[in-house]
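One-letter codes give the sequence; the fold follows as tokens. An example follows:
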Amino acid sequence: MIIPRIIQPPRLDGAPRPFWSVMIPTYQPRADYLRQTIESVLQQDAGAGEMQIEVVDDASPEITEINVAALVKTIAGDRVAFSSTKKNLGLAGCWNTCIEHARGEWVHLLHQDDCVRPGFYERLRHLIRTQPQAGAAFCGYDYINTNSERIFETIPLQTVAGSIPQPAETLAVKNQVQCPAIVVRRAAYETVGGFDDQFSFTLDWEMWLRIAASFSVLYQPEVLASFRIQSDSETSRLAQTGETVWDSMRMIANYPKYISSARATAVQAQAREWVCDLALQKASVFIAHNQVGYAMAQLHAGLSYDRRMTAWRSAFILWAKAIKKSRRWLLPPLPILPTAWFQGYGYRPDSQSAKKL
């Protein structure tokens, strides 16, 4: 895949560019979530001259329960623009379309079910003023559930707002940024290119590393954004086959592109351990929900890369729990066994295991 170029936006009648472009990609959105997303931005609206706000729908089918254009009009009148792709482009394609439509100096990709908290744009703009040539700036964020209740918040990277030392290494050890918490200077996208569709789960993580390898990255420790966890998300679907692990490992293999050769191997090892630990956590959650097939896919993918005895011991304890939970024999998640045996293993569309997490 050739990373798509991002060209400079056209000027409209010589008018100055807005500082912000808040771009909201959608696909078959839930009306209540999209309303919350848009309203969280409008509560901080700096005016049309300072803030472009646009919803970009990725060709939601006409049979969807809601008319996205009409819903946006109902929520925001003419304040929020609406556009739609001619065909479904997928995550990378839709996100790149958002960037192409962005006219502002700084671009915020805010997904249809996430939201920002009061002070997000003000605090980050104040931080950006200290280093206007930075490539990106992000803040602390929390995770919310389907009822918009806070589950937990991230641990601050540093206690003082400012530049992150060695940003590429810091962001490579583990994925520490979710999309609602980060804004990117459009000129940075113009330099490094758009999102790479060869990655399904880590396309955002890969982008932050690409930017961090070429620009300074700023950080605001305040929790000013919320990332929603829900069962029917693309992440949940990819987790069911272990693709979250496989895709992460493919991306980590590219670290020499972003990090000095002297450090790349050590950082790769740290990142792989983090991904494998995350696979154990996901497997445990799947087992708790009696979705043992999905759990085995995570364990198999994780053990294919993890050589730590502690991880193998934890994986086989979970395997025993899965057998007890399902009351049937399950293949041990050994990496010598074919991956295909574990993708969707135990899945039956009419069964409890078919329900998404």
